[in-house]
Amino acid sequence: MAIAITVLHDENGQFSGFAKVTRDITERKIIEEELRLRDRAIAASQNGIVIADVTNPEGRIIYVNPAFEKMTGYSALTAISQTFPLLPNADINHAELQKLQTAMATGKDCTVVFRNYGQDDSLFWHELNISPMYDQDGYLTHYIGIQTDITERKRAETALLISQNHLQYLVSSSPAIIYACKPEGDYDVIFISDNISSIMGYEATELISNQGFWVNHIHPEDAPQVLAQLSNVLAQGKYCLEYRFLHQDGTYRWVYNQGKVVRDETGNPLELIGYLADISDRKQLEHELRIALEKEKELNELKSRFISMTSHEFRTPLSTILSSSELLQHYGQQWTPEKQLTHLQRIQTAVNRMTEMLNDILVIGKAEVGKLEYKPIHFDLVEYCRQLVEEVQLNLKNQQVFSFTSQFPSISCYMDDKLLGYILSNLLSNACKYSPDGSSVTFTLYVHNEQAVFEIQDQGIGIPSEDLPRLFESFHRGSNVGNILGTGLGLAIVKKCIDIQQGKIDVETQIGVGTKFIVHIPLNINN
Questions:
Q1: Where are any strands of DSSP class E within 29-89?
Q2: What was the pLDDT predicted at 339?
Q3: CATH ID of 176-278, from 1.10.760.10, 3.30.1490.20, 3.30.450.20, 3.40.50.970
Q4: Residue range 180-187: mean pLDDT, rounded
Q5: What is the pLDDT of residues 317-328, one digit of tens each?
């Protein structure tokens, strides 16, 4: 309450008493207390607060709080009566300055960000928010400015931007693709680095916007295994995968995929993060290395079989030569010319046998290292085959009945006659070698789909089914050949010579009935 006491006097000026007036000032006291609290709050605020009176043309500052003094380095004594806003050293860009000037000219709120320098030339970043104040008649009387020091925030933003630029550079220049995806379902991509375009040909947006893109581009043969391993990723926490992924150009590339599960503070999975690296070159090298190792293994096996074959096959003709020559040396003068001739023929046959084996070894050796030359010429197949049959009959001197037939009296071709000779002579000699005396050997020649087809049918021992997978391997012989001489090189030479001429060979066989070889070789008559 507010009490006012007034001394009263009568008409003669004599004291006559007192008058007391009591008023309720509760509301005023509340307002005063609120004002005091507001003043204390303004004074204690961490934000710089400045009030300017704009009823005068200069718009002078009439109040600044301690935070403003600390923030700017200007004391209240220096700041008061300065023109609002107090930005003598502000480094503010044109757009922000224009926004501030427009707001003050139109009496509107405005927020600007600028760099400023204190009286000690220290640099700081401020965010200034100005608000107009109007009187009860609607006239603009004051501006209140709230200035916030955002220097630390700006430094953090700058550091973050630098860090992001560093990270972006490292990601974009990395040979690996960085990604984040959902931890389940189709593992849809949430983020992927831009270098996906240079490595896999896709834009990052394609993987992010298309549901199931990643899963749908895994090679169908690899997808079940990849998804099976990923189904356990939440339990294991990490993964390492190798699989084929479809490149934008339509080819599949081998990739190495390593990642881990990211969880929140309660352990719930949020996403999978990891990287993809193109390992196609490594896979190609591994493939070539495997082939090289397989070839080395084959060569070692070939060498072992060669040693075994030569030690066995060369021993027989050498023994024949040695025994016949010794007999001729000791008893030749006592023998008749006919008996001497018999032993000389035995020596000659043994020498021819060794010559054939050496020729086979030379041919297969050239074929194994890719040095068997292909030199095609034009010639007549029918005449060539007739002469070859005569030579085989003359050299083998077996008792089989040969039959040669041709679809046409003359067939022109463009082939390597030497390679063709290796093919047909080996097949014909085998037909004789593995057939009994008096049996038939049928040789048929015809044309089909611009290819010459050679069929050689015998009535020999046949080939066991278990030997067919290795039929064309060097030094491999059928399990039923018994004491029949052979090196196991003939059919290997046949297959190599056919492959060089881009042909093919099929076989039909039945134990005790006979074997038919069907050879297809392009005529190449257009050449």
A1: 48-53, 60-64
A2: 87
A3: 3.30.450.20
A4: 89
A5: 788 888 888 888
